[in-house]
Amino acid sequence: MTDFTNDTAIPRKRASHAPMREYYVYFAVIFIATLPLAVLTWTLTAARQLALPSQGPVKSAWSQAQIITPRIFSA
User: Fold this and answer.
1) What is the model's pTM?
2) What is the DSSP letter of 6?
């Protein structure tokens, strides 16, 4: 018969926030990568239509990063 009364289990440490940090790093890299293309697209759209688009280039790049980053982590 096994004696489990003296089980000295090592207390677990709290899980680090590495996955969240990794998400933010990927988000930042994707945001920085999409920003020049968003600026170019915004400029060309403004020049063609002679009016400013509804979304600015930063908001457009931000939304693209919000779409792309979760797809990387769900794969």
Assistant:
1) 0.71
2) T
Q: How many angstroms separate the CA atoms of 69 and 49, rounded? A: 31
Among 64, 70, 67, 69, smallest CA distance to 37 is for 64
Distance between CA atoms of residues 21 and 37, nearest Å: 25
Tokens standing for 66?
Answer: 């919000």
pLDDT in tens, 20-75: 899 999 999 999 999 999 999 999 999 999 999 899 999 999 999 999 999 998 87
**CB burial of residue 65 (10 Å; 0-12, 13-18, 19+):** buried
Between CA 39 and CA 73 the distance in angstroms is 26
Query: What is the rounded CA–CA span in Å between residue 71 and residue 55?
Result: 23
